[in-house]
């Protein structure tokens, strides 16, 4: 090959071909936002459970496909039932996440739209959101009794807001996820990527450890334990392919401590075992995990405690 005659690469045009943007995933609690994020990223980075307000932080998930890099932001479900400091903090997280995004995925259950959904939609109709494309994600399509009911429902939704796109789907179907990525891509600005091509999240391993423990806590205690409990990482040491982690589960009452520990400590052991296995799969590394349970009365309504536990 005669390199003297080869044209120099046009770096500027290569960069302009790249697309990258922030995509917020919003909706009421328990509508499937974290499941959708995990499916879009192709890796579990956001915890899931049937308990409302499982997601408590802004979680960033990254997916790069071809020339497009999607930076998804999973937010807590907007909460209007309880006025604790924790819920006020979570709602501030939702509002702040919407300020700098390029596209919004408004997730609802297909065929359903209630007052909690309407309150989230009102946030998207604020003056600061004008001009930002909002895509209606009609999730859990498989739960709809009659598929033909979705068309009149979509017409009603169009009357509520000028959505840029309607996407009926199931977050658990790979084909639907690929279709959604294709729909979102043209809305991303033409600009260089924010992250490396193989990046999955901007969250640290320490943060992910706390989240996975909290997921198992919620899943294994069910409705017994109020959601006002959290996990604090006391020690995180990386020794080659080994992670040594010590964590404390913080609850509000002595009775809650007993629920977490269980008879003979069996429930706490199971929480630790399942969290350890999940983290080992996530990091492809050996994990040594120690768990304790402490009572901190009123922590969920104490701003100082919230800040010390990592709530922004």
Automatic annotation (TrEMBL):
Keywords: Cell membrane, Cytoplasm, GTP-binding, Membrane, Nucleotide-binding, Ribosome biogenesis, RNA-binding, rRNA-binding. Gene3D superfamilies: 3.30.300.20, P-loop containing nucleotide triphosphate hydrolases (3.40.50.300). It is a peripheral membrane protein. It is found in: Cytoplasm; Cell membrane. Residues 19-190 form the Era-type G domain. One of its GO terms (biological process) is ribosomal small subunit assembly. One of its GO terms (molecular function) is ribosomal small subunit binding. Residues 27-34 are annotated as: G1. Residues 139-142 are annotated as: G4. SUPFAM superfamilies: P-loop containing nucleoside triphosphate hydrolases, Prokaryotic type KH domain (KH-domain type II). Residues 74-77 are annotated as: G3. Residues 169-171 are annotated as: G5. Its main location: cytoplasm. CDD domains: Era (cd04163), KH-II_Era (cd22534). GTP binds at residues 27-34, 74-78, 139-142. GO terms for cellular component: cytosol; plasma membrane. It comes from the Bacteria. Residues 213-297 form the KH type-2 domain. Residues 53-57 are annotated as: G2. The keyword Cell membrane applies. Belongs to the TRAFAC class TrmE-Era-EngA-EngB-Septin-like GTPase superfamily. Era GTPase family. An essential GTPase that binds both GDP and GTP, with rapid nucleotide exchange. Plays a role in 16S rRNA processing and 30S ribosomal subunit biogenesis and possibly also in cell cycle regulation and energy metabolism. Monomer. This is GTPase Era. It comes from Rubrivivax rivuli.
């Amino acid at each position: 090959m005669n390199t003297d005659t080869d044209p120099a690469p046009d770096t500027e045009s290569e960069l302009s071909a790249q697309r990258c943007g922030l995509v917020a995933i919003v909706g009421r609690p328990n509508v499937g936002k974290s499941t959708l994020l995990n499916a879009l990223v192709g890796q579990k980075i956001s915890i899931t459970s049937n308990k409302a307000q499982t997601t408590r932080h802004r979680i960033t998930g990254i997916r790069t496909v071809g020339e497009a890099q999607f930076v998804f932001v999973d937010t807590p479900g907007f909460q209007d039932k309880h006025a604790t400091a924790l819920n006020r903090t979570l709602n501030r997280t939702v509002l702040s996440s919407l300020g700098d995004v390029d596209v919004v995925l408004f997730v609802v259950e297909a065929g359903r739209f209630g007052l909690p959904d309407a309150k989230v939609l009102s946030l998207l109709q604020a003056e600061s959101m004008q001009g930002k494309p909002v895509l209606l994600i009609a999730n859990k399509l498989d739960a709809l009794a009659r598929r033909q009911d979705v068309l009149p429902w979509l017409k009603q939704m169009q009357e509520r807001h000028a959505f840029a796109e309607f996407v009926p789907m199931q977050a658990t179907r790979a084909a639907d996820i690929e279709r959604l990525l294709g729909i979102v891509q043209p809305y991303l600005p033409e600009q260089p990527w924010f992250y490396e091509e193989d990046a999955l999240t901007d969250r640290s391993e320490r943060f992910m450890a706390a989240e996975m423990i909290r997921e198992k806590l919620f899943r294994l205690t069910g409705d017994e334990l109020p959601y006002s409990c959290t996990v604090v990482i006391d020690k995180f040491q990386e020794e080659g392919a080994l992670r040594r982690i010590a964590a404390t589960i913080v609850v509000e009452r002595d009775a809650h401590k007993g629920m977490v520990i269980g008879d003979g400590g069996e429930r706490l052991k199971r929480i630790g075992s399942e969290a350890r296995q999940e983290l080992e799969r996530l990091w492809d590394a050996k994990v040594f995990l120690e768990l304790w349970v402490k009572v901190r009365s009123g922590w969920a309504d104490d701003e100082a405690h919230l800040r010390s536990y990592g709530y922004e």
